[in-house]
Design brief:
single chain, 101 residues, mainly alpha, 2 domains, 4 helices, 41% helix, 4% strand
Length: 101
């Protein structure tokens, strides 16, 4: 319900004062969502996925590039960023999703 996928049965959901039904974009920009099964993104390369998520959350290019370099090194993902996520292990997909947040 917090992601806006399901509507609340009753009451309201606010994220930092933003109502998820009245201000969905503003509320969603304040949270991250990591799916356990990210199948919808499997045709993207890791770097395409990161740029997609960064665009959605309006992460500036310079901050994005710094974060990609830093986290891909920490997670040992430098060699897979240009490969489609379909070939990634479940753990590597999860790491990529963390990088996108």
């Amino acid at each position: 319900m917090m992601t806006g996928i399901l509507k609340p049965d009753s009451g309201t959901i606010q994220i930092n004062g933003k109502d998820i039904e009245k201000e969905p974009v503003e509320a969603k920009q304040m949270i991250g969502y990591m799916a356990d099964n990210p199948d919808m993104f499997l045709r993207l390369t890791g770097i395409e996925y990161i740029h997609l998520i960064s665009d959605i959350y309006k992460v500036p290019k310079e901050k994005r590039i710094k974060r990609i370099k830093e986290l891909s090194r920490k997670f040992h993902l430098e060699d897979v960023l240009d490969k489609t996520m379909q070939g990634y292990s479940h753990g590597t997909r999860q790491k990529m999703m963390v990088m996108g947040l």
